[in-house]
Amino acid sequence: MNKLKNTNLFYGLFGILISFVLITIDQYTKRLAILYLKENPIILIKNIFQLTYLENRGAAFGIMQGKKMFFVIITIVILSFIFFIYLRVPKSRHYNLLRFVMILFVSGAIGNMIDRVSYNYVVDFFYFELINFPIFNVADCYVTIAAGLLIFLFLFVYKEEELNSIFQLGKKGLKKENE
């Protein structure tokens, strides 16, 4: 039992450390965008890609503008669910990529929530002009990469039984885990 607590502690601290690093990178890049891009966008590849400052008061693609409290509450609910699942993932190397996916989701969600709470908007700055893609940030990259990896894992890596044992809620799932 003590060994199990140590592994939970290890994976918990590891997750917190990696999230802290990723959130710091996100916040640092947003700070640079605020300082250097507000007045002058930087064109990296003409007509293709640039760094340009945008204050996004909505969600992805600018939807639901001005719904700050809704986004904060939804983010807290999603983070709670991810933390719960993170602690239920079996402590074996087979699940390391799944844990990393959850760390990416958490880091992206917290990075954007920090902006919403601090500024009442999210700082975005990556812009693919060639395809007129909505402007986004590093935290958005974390969430997008995590979503892609999660789909890949669900389709090609983990068997249905493995996922059921993680996501199964209630006493039945807890009994199996403790056996």
TrEMBL record:
<keyword id="KW-0064">Aspartyl protease</keyword>
<dbReference type="GO" id="GO:0006508">
    <property type="term" value="P:proteolysis"/>
</dbReference>
<feature type="transmembrane region" description="Helical">
    <location>
        <begin position="96"/>
        <end position="114"/>
    </location>
</feature>
<dbReference type="GO" id="GO:0004190">
    <property type="term" value="F:aspartic-type endopeptidase activity"/>
</dbReference>
<comment type="similarity">
    <text>Belongs to the peptidase A8 family.</text>
</comment>
<feature type="transmembrane region" description="Helical">
    <location>
        <begin position="134"/>
        <end position="158"/>
    </location>
</feature>
<dbReference type="Pfam" id="PF01252">
    <property type="entry name" value="Peptidase_A8"/>
</dbReference>
<comment type="pathway">
    <text>Protein modification; lipoprotein biosynthesis (signal peptide cleavage).</text>
</comment>
<keyword id="KW-1133">Transmembrane helix</keyword>
<dbReference type="GO" id="GO:0005886">
    <property type="term" value="C:plasma membrane"/>
</dbReference>
<dbReference type="InterPro" id="IPR001872">
    <property type="entry name" value="Peptidase_A8"/>
</dbReference>
<keyword id="KW-0472">Membrane</keyword>
<feature type="active site">
    <location>
        <position position="140"/>
    </location>
</feature>
<keyword id="KW-1003">Cell membrane</keyword>
<keyword id="KW-0645">Protease</keyword>
<keyword id="KW-0812">Transmembrane</keyword>
<feature type="transmembrane region" description="Helical">
    <location>
        <begin position="9"/>
        <end position="28"/>
    </location>
</feature>
<keyword id="KW-0378">Hydrolase</keyword>
<feature type="active site">
    <location>
        <position position="124"/>
    </location>
</feature>
<protein>
    <recommendedName>
        <fullName>Lipoprotein signal peptidase</fullName>
        <ecNumber>3.4.23.36</ecNumber>
    </recommendedName>
</protein>
<feature type="transmembrane region" description="Helical">
    <location>
        <begin position="69"/>
        <end position="89"/>
    </location>
</feature>
<comment type="function">
    <text>This protein specifically catalyzes the removal of signal peptides from prolipoproteins.</text>
</comment>
